[in-house]
Amino acid sequence: MATMMNKRSVGAFGKQAPVRSARVAARPSRSGSVRVAATAAADDLGFKKMRDGVKVASDETLLSPRFYTTDFDECERLFSLELNKNLDMAEFDAILAEFKQDYNQRHFVRNETFKAAAEKITGPTRKIFIEFLERSCTAEFSGFLLYKELGRRLKSSSPAVAEIFTLMSRDEARHAGFLNKAMSDFDLALDLGFLTKNRKYTFFKPKFIFYATYLSEKIGYWRYISIYRHLQRNPDNQLYPLFEYFENWCQDENRHGDFFTAVLKSQPDMVNDWAAKLWSRFFCLSVYITMYLNDHQRNAFYGSLGLNTTQFNQHVIIETNKSTERIFPAVPNVEDPEFFRRLDLLVQYNEKVLAIGRMDLPDAIKLVMRLPFIERMVAEVFQVFIMTPKETGSVDFSGNKAAIVY
């Protein structure tokens, strides 16, 4: 497998330069909320370990996956059959019946090829695979914790919706466990119980949770299916069998996103006024920009799969936006060439900020050096936000009644 790292591959998302074989050291991020003993040992890739085979979780940053919590009392009111007459229980019951089918119950079954493939991935490619698995596992586990608590808290006010959340938490736990087991193929894993107790939780109001989770699930679908289809066309870049599971896996993401579509339709004020348009655009841009910057920091990972990071990201954002405009009342016009031109500028400025952070200088001097680039990034984000949006949404509401028009 190591020899594949030096091959150039052409796929739907263009060329990517080969990954070089020189070993790189891990570079610590800024401090996060999860603390372990300062004497934690580091392996030869630079990863710190809590104990043998258990990795210290990466520090939280502005762009890293987060754990979320919300106002569960408000959620109970939003899904109360007595208080919310817009709840279409026929639609929720149909969604529940589909989740109960558990189409992927027997899908996530490992075989002997996993460990053998991991042993052939060496050097910097091994390091970036571990980082990818950790980020993906953390994101899926975050969804599990949030959905599990929503399922528990909504049992009285809306049993059907509560059961849907519980079944979604089942899916997310399955994904997180599968990814954590994949990490163990690389001789590391996360202590998910430790993370549950020690990770910092970010509070979002329920409507912001619904916007963010809808986008997270839909963009997850387009990421997974795009990687899967690319590797089906380019089997020489199928370095690790995890990606062979992405076709069925992404269907879980799509079903979750469809459920949040029904949730948003049940809350008219979240999709039918000027504030909803602003928040819809804000969350779209937050998710799109975060992904764009994150992935461009990890060109080597996408290069190892024969993907061009920029073309892959642009494809995923465009397709996610097409899905999102069916329910959000306004979305960014991502097909305007100016949109990605400005995102590419953000990548350039972010690279400058990261390069300064790696310099062997006092923190105060590095902060002063970073400020001009951070200022430019803020200005570019503002310019993206004020671009003329697309007026969208496929749901019309009349008075207090939910009249769904397609």
TrEMBL record:
Rubrerythrin diiron-binding domain: residues covered: 131-263
Keyword Metal-binding: yes
Biological process terms in GO annotation: chlorophyll biosynthetic process; photosynthesis
Broad EC category: oxidoreductase
Required cofactor names: Fe cation
UniProt catalytic activity: Mg-protoporphyrin IX 13-monomethyl ester + 3 NADPH + 3 O2 + 2 H(+) = 3,8-divinyl protochlorophyllide a + 3 NADP(+) + 5 H2O
E.C. code: 1.14.13.81
Keywords annotated in UniProt: Chlorophyll biosynthesis, Iron, Metal-binding, NADP, Oxidoreductase, Photosynthesis
Gene Ontology MF annotations: magnesium-protoporphyrin IX monomethyl ester (oxidative) cyclase activity; metal ion binding
Keyword Nuclease among UniProt keywords: no
Pfam families: Rubrerythrin (PF02915)
Protein name: magnesium-protoporphyrin IX monomethyl ester (oxidative) cyclase
Biological or metabolic pathway of the protein: Porphyrin-containing compound metabolism; chlorophyll biosynthesis
Gene Ontology CC terms: chloroplast thylakoid membrane
Family to which the UniProt record says this protein belongs: Belongs to the AcsF family.
